[in-house]
Amino acid sequence: MATKCSIPVIDLQDLDSPNQLSKLISACEEWGCFRLLNHHEVLPSTLMSEMKAVVRSLFDLPVEIKRQNTDVITGSGYMAPSAKNPLYEALGLYDMSSPQDVDSFCSQLDASPHQRETIMRYAGAVHDLFMGIVGKLAEGLGAKSENIGFENWPCQFRINKYHFTPESVGSPGVQIHTDSGFLTILQDDEGVGGLEVMNSSGEFIAVDPWPGTLLVNLGDMATVWSNGRFCNVKHRVQCKEAKIRVSIASFLLGPREAVEPLPELVDDKHPRVYVATTYEEYRKLRFSTKLQAGEALALLYTSSSDK
Prior knowledge:
By secondary structure, the chain is an alpha+beta fold. The protein is 28% helix and 19% strand. It has helices at 18-30, 45-59, 63-66, 99-108, 113-140, 220-225, 279-289; strands at residues 9-11, 33-37, 88-93, 155-163, 172-177, 183-187, 195-198, 204-206, 214-218, 235-238, 244-252. The strands form two sheets. Strands 1-2-9-6-11-4-3 form a seven-stranded mixed β-sheet. The chain is globular. Belongs to the iron/ascorbate-dependent oxidoreductase family. InterPro entries: DIOX_N, IPNS-like_FE2OG_OXY, IPNS-like_sf, Iron_ascorbate_oxido_reductase, Oxoglu/Fe-dep_dioxygenase_dom. 2-oxoglutarate-dependent dioxygenase essential for auxin catabolism and maintenance of auxin homeostasis in reproductive organs. Catalyzes the irreversible oxidation of indole-3-acetic acid (IAA) to the biologically inactive 2-oxoindole-3-acetic acid (OxIAA).
């Protein structure tokens, strides 16, 4: 049973103020997630609505067309309901920051000109939003974002559909996990809940729908990059009611080269916690060990780490 509580709320338009920036960093350290408001200059509410309509229409395609959405890396393409996740279905593309990848995704699904144009605009807006958020994270930790090269990091895109039935109420839609990448922007279902995040006490907190806002989660790569300061939030989806639930998730994965703790966060009092790793190496580590809830980070501890 999830506890009733609110996750932190961050106002994007106010992030130039020291107080709001401090609140952002605290949310990342204590929760590893937050609700984002006032992002509509970058990602307008009209585009969010248009994109959600496109997503629903893509899931209505015949399964033989959806199966044309093939993987670039494991899990980046079409995922049909399975024995492990029988209520879950997904479509995706590996790098939404690449016009070629977006075009390929649209072609695989025989997207109409309107669908293609909407997906292209949404991908560009979300990438701009990622860059704004991670720039503020770097600033809040005392690092210079222009030295990090966030704009070259791949951004995976996944649209999710949960086929909740009366028999499945109380069952998991997706098992407990952390995101393997750096940062996730989630446009959740406007009316059907089910997302739960774990707080620092190990309790699950229900994240109720809030139309017109976004959810932001930090993943395992953010924990490495922040030298353990940022929380990689554990979360799951539970079936609360017999309805279809649709969400749009965008993932800033991490650099193609090695990610390691920011040098500004490592000193004699704060020794380096993690060895350097690439996102792809870490993703394969999680897959091979079947450690999906952040436990694989322990395999990256340095010999001097006291974790």
